[in-house]
Amino acid sequence: MAAPEGQWVLMATGRSPTNIAVIKYWGKRDEALILPVNDSISVTLDPGHLSATTTVAVSPSFPSDRMWLNGKEISLSGGRFQSCLREIRKRACEFEDEKKGIKIKKEDWEKLHVHIASYNNFPTAAGLASSAAGFACLVFTLGKLMNVKEDYGELSSIARQGSGSACRSLYGGFVKWCMGKKDDGSDSLAVQLADETHWNDLVIIIAVVSSKQKETSSTSGMRDTVETSPLLQYRAQTVVPSRVLKMEEAIKNQDFESFAKLTCADSNQFHAVCLDTSPPIFYMNDTSHRIISLVEKWNQSEGTPQVAYTFDAGPNAVLIARNRKTAAVLLQKLLYYFPPQDKDLSR
Amino acid sequence: MAAPEGQWVLMATGRSPTNIAVIKYWGKRDEALILPVNDSISVTLDPGHLSATTTVAVSPSFPSDRMWLNGKEISLSGGRFQSCLREIRKRACEFEDEKKGIKIKKEDWEKLHVHIASYNNFPTAAGLASSAAGFACLVFTLGKLMNVKEDYGELSSIARQGSGSACRSLYGGFVKWCMGKKDDGSDSLAVQLADETHWNDLVIIIAVVSSKQKETSSTSGMRDTVETSPLLQYRAQTVVPSRVLKMEEAIKNQDFESFAKLTCADSNQFHAVCLDTSPPIFYMNDTSHRIISLVEKWNQSEGTPQVAYTFDAGPNAVLIARNRKTAAVLLQKLLYYFPPQDKDLSR
């Protein structure tokens, strides 16, 4: 039965995993378009674990665009949401569902309002890339709803305008965000280096040191770093380009030793430029430092890396074990040195 | 009455304060001669507070060189002690005390052995520059005993071979260690920028966060940084030279705003290159970070810096207040936010 005129609701649901950078993105050359100062490389997590699930609905009965995050309404007035909505609407295509009596012409999408409900199955804004998963999912699901035909590369460039690292969550596996050269940002997008079946041995363990929201948001933190750190441009222009090439090689060859050394060094250098910012930004705490020491000592005693660590804009450790056996030993060590009653690990 | 042949003991005592770098020394270009990768600038503390007191004695009855640090005998076999002893002996001059019947000819000094007793009135190897005060005092006191005629600049170059930053403790006030250019290190010495009467308003408060000995010694830490940090050379060659010029200006003009900004930024950049080292070096802890946040927020709320902070190779904060009134407020704040029962401040 066809829906009464103006009463229908059309919905789409999508899920996007978060991604963890192994060569870090820190610093924009264009704030509005979200264009980075260097390339970055990430691993996309299994969507069954840390991910955002978003349902978008459209209906002639909706008087305005609205959004709920984890059940709480949030404002869509920010430039980042508006950019994503505008860019997806621009690319919307005709849609018809004869059974339901729904027909939306290309030009209709501009007038139809959306309701968006998004859930993260992990702490928000605690340095676990919740905005990456969130914006990737928003763009992907809106694209699905609005019958957008563009490929993931193009969608990644739209997601980038919501949250830079979101562009890397459009693909699974290993993903590179090419900084691009153009002023309009059209070449600043994600490419898949290897899909999720490549290097299946790796196991990622996230040690949640604190699920509190961070004091310094990534956006304002990286702006301060760009403006005040004398070391950032050297990192972006001289250190990162060669690291990106080495990391691509390491991933291609499943060379865990190089992968781990580059991952740890780049995490530490990202936190170094945060410290070189005025006023300094601290994302890691004493517990983070203890986790690093544990891993470094272990790797040293084995003669070759067993585990890589990387920390985003928060104290939580992302630990990448070379295989399942190592991951099991890592978990034992974590439980031994950071017993669950420890306040630092309580949530 | 003349001493019986071979029974006399000749002694000298000296005291040297520690110094606190405001433009940091981190990294050697020559490990044996202790030649740094950049100039550094420090403030010498009042000798009444953090200082080393050393008594050196010489006697024909001493069969070997020996040394006691804080009452415990330590080995003098290290290259650093040997360099200082050799360089001072080389410059020793004839000494005569007719009353005591002592006559030491220039060439006799090579054969006479010394006993050295040194005390620090503050924690050793806790990142409070104990070795700077210690070696400055050793060289100064040995020079006094052995009637060395060289000026402080030359003595500073000898003290440098004991511990790099020791060269800066030969002078009071504001001191610059010029890295020098020569391979033999003869131009790598300290010069006084302003004496201890200049800029008398400043008050230095040291917040001892931990008096434990540090895990990573400065010597091995800076070697690792030189070998593994991609950012260090850029800091040494590009960032520090311009900071040194600005810091000299700030000191000359008693411009506290510039002084404080440069001091804090350079402390943070030193810890940034430590973090950029593989494996990373952490000297500051959560308490250090809280102290920095307290100072940064206060400075921001006042619109202009009231206090500068700087951290050496340990978690202890060196706080420089612009005047006595500010220092009093700073102490109140420290006592309020870090009450004495707090375990972090216990010794």
From TrEMBL, chains A, B:
Catalytic activity, as annotated: (R)-5-diphosphomevalonate + ATP = isopentenyl diphosphate + ADP + phosphate + CO2
Domain Mvd1 C-terminal per the UniProt entry, residue ranges: 204-343
Keyword set, alphabetical order: ATP-binding, Lipid biosynthesis, Lipid metabolism, Lyase, Nucleotide-binding, Steroid biosynthesis, Steroid metabolism, Sterol biosynthesis, Sterol metabolism
Single annotated GO MF: ATP binding
Gene Ontology terms describing biological process: sterol biosynthetic process
EC annotation from Swiss-Prot or TrEMBL: 4.1.1.33
Entries under InterPro entries matching the protein: GHMP_kinase_C_sf (IPR036554), Mev_decarb (IPR005935), Mev_diP_decarb (IPR029765), MVD-like_N (IPR053859), Mvd1_C (IPR041431), Ribosomal_Su5_D2-typ_SF (IPR020568), Ribsml_uS5_D2-typ_fold_subgr (IPR014721)
Domain of life: Eukaryota
Protein name: Diphosphomevalonate decarboxylase
